[in-house]
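Honest question from a wet-lab person: if I give you the sequences of every part of a complex, can you actually get the arrangement of the whole thing, not just the pieces? Trying it with mine:
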Amino acid sequence: MDLFQALRERRSCRNYDSRPVEPEKIQQILEAGGWAPSVMNKQPWRFIVIQNQNIKEHIKFSCEETLNYMHQVSGWKWLGKYPLDYLMDAPVLIAVIANPKDTGAEQFLPDRGEGYAFSCCAAIQNMLLAAHGLGLASLWFSLYEKDKVREIIGISPEMDLVSMIVLGYAAGEVPNVPRKPVAELTTVVE
Amino acid sequence: MDLFQALRERRSCRNYDSRPVEPEKIQQILEAGGWAPSVMNKQPWRFIVIQNQNIKEHIKFSCEETLNYMHQVSGWKWLGKYPLDYLMDAPVLIAVIANPKDTGAEQFLPDRGEGYAFSCCAAIQNMLLAAHGLGLASLWFSLYEKDKVREIIGISPEMDLVSMIVLGYAAGEVPNVPRKPVAELTTVVE
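Yes, you can. This is the full assembly:
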């Protein structure tokens, strides 16, 4: 697939069918993640590929509790009725974790030290694009409590659960989401 | 360019020639950024395109001070002799900024609220890939003090300077950097 087609067409998908993802596609997606840029070339990302329905069910249950909590605290109505079925329907979840010590010199500046997490984000975006290029759908998922999901998956305490990826084949068309015109987003300093 | 070729071939470049970047390529790169996924589709990214040599010189001077400071605090030797000429040689810097209020429901969880910044990282990775696809070289740059560069560029106080991109044509070949094998990075939970 053409790069610019992938950049334009990739969408966040919340509706999956149960068709399994081919192991070689998962491999290609993880490799795409590994090609991301990283702070001081630390390549801090580690990938946990979760395909066990029982563990996914635990994660879904935990995230439903999290949504209830956020609903109460925020007063945001949609959080009270946001379905997380995609955590069960999609055959693959990938937890992207990293050790915050695997960061760059920015750690010596006040309120910094984000390099390890930003590197993981670059890897995640590569993976979402690769998924699209392979005919798969994906979602960058962040509505979880780190400590709870860490315990369910068995992540060691020194690792940060940076984000999760939902991966599978879309059920139906993935809705298009409009984008702001670039001119509205940009200031040019000549 | 093929998506997977771009994912594999993109490199961090620290050596630029002074050939200007065509405005339509800058436009395509910003558009690629705008197609990134974002938390609650907030599209929090704002782009400041800096081509003024005088402002770039101020940024370089500020970052040299920052490197000196980090060198002293960290004891990391390379920081004392890390040249920042690329900030002047590359014709374009892009500051990616965002309002931390443009984040998602994760803000209601302890020590969270990173969604706006992670969305910007997705946009940046899209932009680096687009740059490569257009024959340009780039660098994800984070060795700056936010308050100092904010003042030089004139960023309003509510906006976070998430990261900067260095953009231009490479002078010579961009060195290849080896990657860890995916098997070393991955745990599979069947």
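Two things worth pointing out. Helices of chain B lie at 3-9, 23-34, 53-74, 77-80, 86-89, 115-133, 146-153, 182-185. Chain B has a mean pLDDT of 97.
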